[in-house]
Amino acid sequence: MSFWDVVWFIIISFAFIAYLMMLFWIVIDLFRDHETSGLLKAVWLVLLLFFPLITALVYVIVRGRGMSERTAGHYQSQQKQQEEYIKHVAGSSTPADQIAKASALLKEGAISQTEFDALKAKALA
User: Fold this and answer.
1) For the segment 38-68, what is each residue's pLDDT rounded down to a tens digit?
2) Which helix (H) or strand (E) holds 93?
3) List of residues 6+ apart from 112 with CB closer than 8 A
4) The pTM is what?
């Protein structure tokens, strides 16, 4: 094997991997699009199977803008869900709220004075 054979192999490998990634993104976008009918999705998939390069190029030309909008919308939705989860888990209570809740528990008799003091110290820390 010569040096140029190795270079050619690297170039071909890169192009093949890029092509596979494009096919995967097209399939992902097809299933992410809720406005496209199942029949049209099946047609796109069959065309990708039998005429992959031409179909992929046509898909990117025809539906490229919608593809990027759906991807951006998906990531925004994921970020929103993550932020909501973090807010839910972390809670949005301030130290004053925590002390007030502990005080209410102390008045109800649910916790002792030492537990209240520990909760107060924890909230202020």
Assistant:
1) 999 999 999 999 999 999 999 999 998 888 8
2) none
3) 106
4) 0.60
